[in-house]
Amino acid sequence: MIELKHVSKLYTNGVEALLDINLHIGKEEFVFIVGPSGAGKTTLMKMLYREEVPSSGQVIVDRVNVTELTPDQVPYLRRNIGVVFQDYKLLPRRTVYENVAFALQVTGAARSQIRRHTMQALELVGMLKRASSFPEELSGGEKQRVCIARAIVNNPPLLLADEPTGNLDPQTTFEIMELLDKINRRSTTLITATHNKNIVDMMKRRVVQLEAGRVIRDQQLGTYSSS
User: Fold this and answer.
1) Which of 10, 30, 131, 162 has its C-alpha lying 20 to 30 A from 2's C-alpha?
2) Which pTM does this prediction carry?
3) DSSP per-residue string spanning 37-56
4) Measured at the alpha carbon of residue 26, what is the angle toward residues 77 and 49, in degrees to the nearest 5?
5) What's phi and psi for 8, nearest 5 deg?
6) Which domain holds residue 183?
7) 139-166-48 Cα angle (round to 5)
8) 5 has which bridge partners?
9) Which residues of 163-180 are buried (b: 16+ CB within 10 A; e: fewer)?
10) How far is the C-alpha of 71 from the C-alpha of 201, rounded, in Å?
11) Among 131, 155, 179, which residue terminates a domain?
12) Pair 193, 209 in one domain
């Protein structure tokens, strides 16, 4: 599903974000990317949906060499990748329904298909009753559920979640992770970058630990730290 081959990223300011990363993630896996701030987690995630490109190496996503895509090919890559952000990135003047539907509208999908898939996604995340609400009327947990619905409305084979529980209380965090686990069990490959020790230790999934841009641990049924 995903393969990084000798991937390095050197920014123009001299910061080495990633150093010779080699990583393989199979179809339908659930992987946590952990490490301190500045370890390279977000840069690695951005590589997968071509928000960043490596200084050297190859990034393969679903047999596509992302590093070789032209700018006009990138939107087609992203149709197969759902992304959940910590800061939601919802459109404030659009309803919950409209925020989720927008992800399909930009692909040129038929109106009937947009409605059916949007309602299905909202039902899956438990937000069907809030379809006509605006983002400012929602709690943090509800906003994140809408973000997840928007990310999966295309039924992408890959879902990326960058600190999806960073702004949430412990109970809501637990609920969001249960939801992500449910989505993973629907045959979706899921990669989550997080600082949250409790959820990583609780879920016991594969853990890839970064430190100073390098992979220092790759552990099945792992915990947040090796100790």
Assistant:
1) 10
2) 0.94
3) TTSSHHHHHHHHTTSS--SE
4) 25
5) -130, 150
6) 25-53+68-80+156-227
7) 115
8) 58
9) bbbbebeeebbebbbebb
10) 39
11) 155
12) yes
pLDDT digits (tens, 9 = 90+) for 82-95: 999 888 999 999 99
pLDDT, mean of residues 192-218? 96
Residues 141 and 178 in one domain: no
pLDDT in tens, 32-75: 999 998 999 999 999 999 999 999 999 999 999 999 999 999 99
Question: If you average pLDDT over residues 165-191, what whole number do you get?
Answer: 94
Q: What six digits make up the tokens of 156?
A: 């992408």
Do residues 89 and 147 lie in contact, with contact meaning Cβ atoms separated by under 8 Å? yes
Percent of the chain whose pLDDT exceeds 70: 100
β-pair partners for 215: 210
CA separation for the pair 73, 77 (Å, rounded): 7
Cβ-contact 35, 213 below 8 angstroms = no
One domain for residues 142 and 226: no
Asked if 44 and 33 touch (Cβ cutoff 8 Å), the reply is yes
Spell out the residues 6+ positions from residue 44 whose beta carbon is closer than 8 angstroms to its own: 4, 18, 21, 33, 193, 210
**Residue 161 three-state SS:** strand
* Cα–Cα dist 165/196, whole Å: 8
Asked whether residue 227 carries a pLDDT value surpassing 70, the answer given is no
C-beta of residue 210 within 8 angstroms of C-beta of residue 39: yes
